[in-house]
Design brief:
With about 230 residues, the chain is of the alpha/beta class. The chain has two domains: about 120 residues, Rossmann fold (3-Layer(aba) Sandwich), CATH 3.40.50.2300; about 100 residues, Arc Repressor Mutant, subunit A, CATH 1.10.10. It has nine helices and twelve strands. α4 links the parallel β4 and β5. The radius of gyration is 19 Å and the shape is elongated.
Length: about 230
């Protein structure tokens, strides 16, 4: 059974990235934009963990956290906020939070924090199928959990970032993926520095597929990339 996440965030672009990434990891996600609807949603959705933005319409995250803690004493709550003052961090924990993540954040860090909270709550189950996952890209086998490509019996080791970029490209094979979405998901922001890093990783990945005519990573100027897999 999929782990259930109640995700509360009113910033639509960020919410789209987070929700889609979590669903790719086989989490069941209910996304809510209005703080006033959270408690009713919890009653209808048996969540394993809550991920709450602090600044929300109608009811703020800290108030929600306190209310959720009264109703569900054991439910993990991760606060997301742009506030960085020590007072705000302390207020988050005193309002029922079990973890606190400052914006902007990378999806990698959010995933680690979610898994850590689920482990502490006894709700995290690492599936063997995740480790054994094999993605076929033309004549190449991609093993994300092993950071590895298999090409004609030979192994090519990938860096962590190469693996993250290729995972997103392969999950969106044969359809465009926005450059901004890649940057926001993997690095947490789309700064010039991170954008140049993405260029480097795209170039490296293209080199790995140079001899495979069935795979091509196309740059869509002003949009992003399109990984064609025949």
């Amino acid at each position: 059974m999929a782990t259930k996440i109640l995700y509360v965030e009113d910033e639509q672009f960020l919410a789209k990235i987070v929700k889609e990434t979590l669903e790719l990891k086989n989490y069941q996600v209910v996304h809510i934009t209005d703080g006033g609807k959270v408690l009713d949603s919890l009653r209808n959705f048996d969540a394993d963990i809550c991920v709450l933005d602090v600044m929300l319409p109608n009811v703020d995250g800290f108030t929600l956290g306190a209310g959720i803690r009264q109703l569900y004493p054991q439910l993990p709550i991760i606060f997301l906020t742009a506030k960085t003052q020590t007072y705000d961090v302390l207020k988050g924990f005193s309002s029922g939070g079990t973890d606190y993540l400052k914006k902007p954040f990378s999806m990698e860090e959010l995933m680690v924090r979610i898994e850590n909270q689920l482990r502490m709550a006894g709700k995290f189950h690492n599936k063997a199928s995740d480790v054994e996952e094999e993605i076929t890209l033309g004549n190449i086998k991609f093993y994300p959990a092993l950071y590895e490509l298999q090409v004609n019996g030979s192994s090519i080791k990938l860096s962590h970032r190469e693996t993250q970029v290729l995972r997103m490209l392969s999950n969106n094979a044969n359809k465009p993926i926005e450059r901004k979405l890649l940057l926001k998901t993997i690095w947490g922001d789309d700064s010039f520095f991170n954008s140049r890093n993405l260029d480097v990783y795209i170039r490296k990945l293209r080199e790995h597929f140079t001899n495979d005519e069935d795979v091509e990573i196309i740059t869509l100027k002003g949009i992003g990339y399109h990984m064609v897999v025949k």
